[in-house]
Amino acid sequence: MKTMDRDLRSYVTIVDSFINQAEIDREEAKIISSELRKFITLKLQNKEWVHPVITKFCTDWYREFYRLLDNQDPYKNIKKESNERAQKLLQQLQPKIKTLRECVMLSIVGNKLDFGASLVINPDITKMDEMFQDLDKQQLEMDDSEQLESQIKSAKSMLFLTDNAGEVIFDIPLLQYIGRYIPRERLFIGAKGAPMLNDVTAQELKELGFEQYGTIISTGSNCFGLHEDDVSTDFKRVLKQADLVIAKGQAYMEFSTEHDFRNWFNLLLVKYPIVAKPFGTLQTGRMHVIHSARYAPYGKPYDFSALEQEQNETPLGMEMVDAKEKIKTRDALKELCRQLKQQGKILLTTNGSFDIIHAGHVLFLEEAKRIGIEHAKKHGKKAEDVVLVVGMNSDASVKAYKNPDRPIIPETYRATMLAGLASVDYVTLFDETAPMEFIKTVVPDLHFNAATYGKDCIERTAVEMLGGKVVLIGDLCDYSTTKMISKIIELDKKERGDPATLSMDETKIRIINEHEPLLDFSKINRYPLQSRKNKFMKEDMLSLDQATPPPSQPEDIETLAQRIVEARTSGKE
Hints:
Elements: H1 9-22, H2 26-45, H3 54-68, H4 76-93, H5 100-109, H6 128-131, E1 142-143, H7 145-154, E2 158-161, H8 172-178, E3 187-191, H9 202-207, E4 215-218, H10 233-241, E5 244-248, H11 250-256, E6 264-269, E7 274-276, E8 280-282, E9 287-291, H12 330-342, E10 346-352, H13 359-378, E11 386-393, H14 395-401, H15 411-419, E12 426-430, H16 436-442, E13 446-450, H17 460-465, E14 469-473, H18 481-496, H19 499-502, H20 506-511, H21 538-547, H22 557-569
Parallel strand pairs: 1-9, 2-3, 2-5, 3-4, 5-6, 10-11, 10-13, 11-12, 13-14
Antiparallel strand pairs: 6-9, 7-8
Helix pairs in contact: 1-2, 5-8, 18-22
């Protein structure tokens, strides 16, 4: 949509709305308001100073407001209050929301919570419940919801573009519906990277707990629409690869009609009339679900040239996942699991120290997830409904129940490695020596344990009291931490011919296990480059050692073997 197609008064009235939210000195507010009005009036009179595309013009215009306020967020408090009131109201409304159409209507009515359309709408959030009266009687003027339902069920990946704070809470039932068909890691929830009026930001979505519904991605900008020179390359990659895009609100409608997107659905309540070739004019106050097939033939291609041209593009949802996003505190996990239960998810748990993760651990976790999926299908659910939560002993816990010199790998690194596994959905640490509090936090449907612990394992009573079942998994490979450590020492013995290692009894080498002290990384100050396989000359190694600060953890297997031997020969028996 073009800038000059809108009532020009709208660009002026937003000034007072913005200033009122800013809570600045009254005299200063008058000066700022006066100067902004003069500025915009002059720009509009000289049309050549105005960007022709409305979403780009509004972005540049509103950024002037933020510049004058040193980039403060004047809508911060009203966004917070909108979210809180919406959350309370959704608890009342959600039991009545069952079908996709009901989810869509709730989401579109929520689009009324827009403080950027001050010429035609000024929502009163204290009367939010009145907006949703007669929800079942609301009508769509342009209704492509059947096509939307069909594409949701067939899409393998999706991008959901959010709009306003408060409104986004009413998107939750729709996101939950989509989550029945599209895995969380392939459902991307997009939001602005910085404040713009009362639009929700990516950081605010995280604070609201939206990571339980999908992968949150920032546009990398606070622009209206997704202008090529504003949004990030990472976001463009998601936009390009998504099978389906759902875009909320008027700004995305105004932006998308300029382009030839063929996989978009726009959900909106029209505030200002929207002028576009295929429709003529969309009138104020009407609700729509519009498939982009209606307007794509009139639009231009979106410029993806900034993306790196990769010969073999990674399928969406298969990119590297930020493992840290999977690691949750106990309080965060408790609330997350409560919400997952409400969504009908099947929760799986297991626990351990996972000190030196190996193939046995990986296969155990994969088998737990596989059994959980089979269980889910027997109860009419999908693989995406299964969530595996791993409880991991913290450093303090390991020291308390194993040995003061353990663990070998610090908790941060152990948790990160666990979270990096595809079979694991969430990881949390616990300081207790036993996992009962962890189990009470999650309330699992199935808890997995190694068969060596037997059916009367310590977790059984807690699991069954909470209505769950304990599942035992036998050895899946002939490998263990004990064997790993023994192999390291034997390798070191052969490689270095260390007298101290050679003098060690073979039996002692083999029996080193999780119950014996090995190594305290915190006591190691530097790690000499001693591998005889290293191709650097001595001078090169010295300069490299000087130029690079000593790593906080050993980085190669030979250094680890050396430290294990030192620990064994220093009298820590």
